Amino acid sequence: MPVRTFSAICAPPRIGRQGDSTVTVPAHPSHVASPAASGPAPHSFWQRYRVIIVAVTLFIVIDLGVLMLNFYTSFKIAEDAVSVNLSGRQRMLSQRMTKALLTLELERRDGRDTGPAREELRSVVDLFDRTLHGFNTGATVPGGDGNPVYLTAVADDGGRKVVADALARWAPYRLALAPVLEGRASPSQLGIAVAYARNENLRMLELMNDLTSVLEVNATRRADFLRMVQSVGILLALLNFIYILYKFLSSLRRADQATEAVNEENREILDSVREGLFLLHPDFTLGTQISRSVGTLLGRAPRPGDRLPDLLGPLLFEKDLKDARDYMELLFSPHVLENLVHSINPLSCVEVKTLNALGKEERKFLSFSFNRVLDDGRVRHLLVTMQDITARVALEQQIDAERGRARQEFSSLVQALGADTGALRHFVARAETQLLQVNSLLRSLSEQAGTAEVRKTLEKVFRLVHTFKGEAAALHLDLLADMAHNFEDELQQLHNKDRLNGDSLIQLPLQLEGLLEKIAVFKQIPLNPGTSDDPAQTADHALARALQLASRAAADLGKQVHTRLVFEDGALEHPWAQDPELGSLVIQLARNAIAHGIETPAERSAAGKPEAGLLTLTLARRASGELEIHLRDDGRGLQPAAVRQRLLDLGWYPPAELDRLSDLQILGQITKPGFSTAEPGGIHAGRGVGLDAVLQEVVRLGGRLWARSSPGRGSTFGIVLPGESRREPARTPA
């Protein structure tokens, strides 16, 4: 489950310029210009809709053409219908005309009144004549219902021939009927008219039948043409519809393909982009397009419609989640200026612990940035960008560490420039010797060296490096002390391994080289000419620095301590008091007293002691010429039970054997390498090297180390160094 933590080292990610943080989209998709369409708008419109415009125009032209042809043909068919009707009436009129003439002849012979017959004949002749001439030249004649209609002249060659033949036969017939119609015809004239009627009646009927047939054929042909036009129009319209449908479907298919291509590109982008990208709706739900990195960054795969607060819940505390929700609500409010709230983004840097694909927990830093997506001034969405800024934060931390290291190095150089000349000279020379001894020890190991041999070498290296660290700290050379402490970390890791060989120490020369390079720099520092070279004063300063380091160690551990330095008569003049070895031994004993002996202020108050402990260093010269150093603290004293439990935890002795050891024997184990009752890895204690280094150095110098302790009242560690006649030459050059 992700662990929710925050780090103040994070800085808000800078993604583009703050002034460019709002994304504006058009109200309608059609308003978005295609990247390829760089020409003017009309050209773009024509290029886009050319096929549809042509198809619709063609459809309108076809429909108008068919409509016009249909109208024209229908008009002609109507004319043909009038002509056919009137030609049929001509047949009827030819028969009525003959009948009226014969009736007139009969009534005249019988002496009856011929007026009605004559009027009938006159109206029939007039109507027949006008209609026949209308067929010839076109004219307005009475229709079948008596209303005037326009009779179109016969245009067909066959029809024109029939009309011409009918006119040729009608002309003499009309002349013969003229006297009869005027009522002045003699019997002979009436006989001539009747004879002509009898002779031409059948022929005239045939001609009118022929005219009707011709006109009916023309009307049928026009009707067929109309049907053909309508069929062709329907066919063209259907073809045009199929063409439009084809183009529409093709365009739709291309649009679908383009959309699919865009979606595929979006998927490829969202699958490959390292940032987490998604759109956030006003109800805080995720949109449909979510980059794959979102799931990787969050440690779970989100789905469209998931609420962002629910996804962030396992990563944030309740208050931080509420702040994030309030911030997003502010961004969805259009009246709030986005640039004004950009700096209060609570999700600009979040430190989380998530499970990776292998199920292992990993620590990372995430950054969330929010950009408005506007539509007509309304905030439609928020574009959320997630970034893994772990590398950037690590780089910032590394830069800060390097800056701190540079400040520390500069501070160390400043301290060195103001340090005591003799002390600095002795430290640099002694440190170089110690580091070269470390180098010799590491080089002496062969690749075939076993675990025991390597562990023994590590213990020697440990003592040298620990001594170097204490002496550097006494001179306030914190850079060198920290580097030595890091060196101890690597030594401790190697020492804790079950199996070791010569290759196990392959990384140690890198740490050693760094220390030697810094010592080379310190060797080039000019000495302070104002420092006294009086041996007694130099020894006093060296021991005072050792106790000052004890005060600094107490402050680091949350303790308080007063120090006191006591010199008995002649002690400072003793050669051992002026030897750098003595200062190194006191440093280790003082740090050991602070770390293990002096209690915290609260513990001391509970025990009825002053909150500040007392550390007293005494130098005394014995009558035998030996120099005795006492370092006494008023702390908790040595605790045999605590030492016994620690030995049991380390597994150095089985429980039964520990039970057989006396308290004195148990306390004798505190000088063994690797033993410490403090927490491991501390800057001042916890390595199990301090007392071991003191004991080994005292033995090398031919001296003795003793301890006296009273539980609850304090401890005293004493060193007795031999007289001048038995003193070994110091390993450190003057």
TrEMBL record:
The keyword Glycoprotein does not apply. The modification Phosphohistidine is found at H466. It is an enzyme of class 2 (transferase). Keywords: Membrane, Phosphoprotein, Transmembrane, Transmembrane helix, Two-component regulatory system. Residues 416-523 form the HPt domain. One of its GO terms (cellular component) is membrane. SMART domains: HATPase_c. Signal peptide: none annotated. It is found in: Membrane. One of its GO terms (molecular function) is phosphorelay sensor kinase activity. It comes from the Bacteria. PROSITE patterns: HPT (PS50894). It catalyses: ATP + protein L-histidine = ADP + protein N-phospho-L-histidine. The chain crosses the membrane at residues 49-69, 225-246. Its EC number is 2.7.13.3. Pfam families: HATPase_c, Hpt, PilJ. It is a multi-pass membrane protein. This is histidine kinase. It comes from Pseudothauera nasutitermitis. The lineage of its organism: Bacteria, Pseudomonadati, Pseudomonadota, Betaproteobacteria, Rhodocyclales.
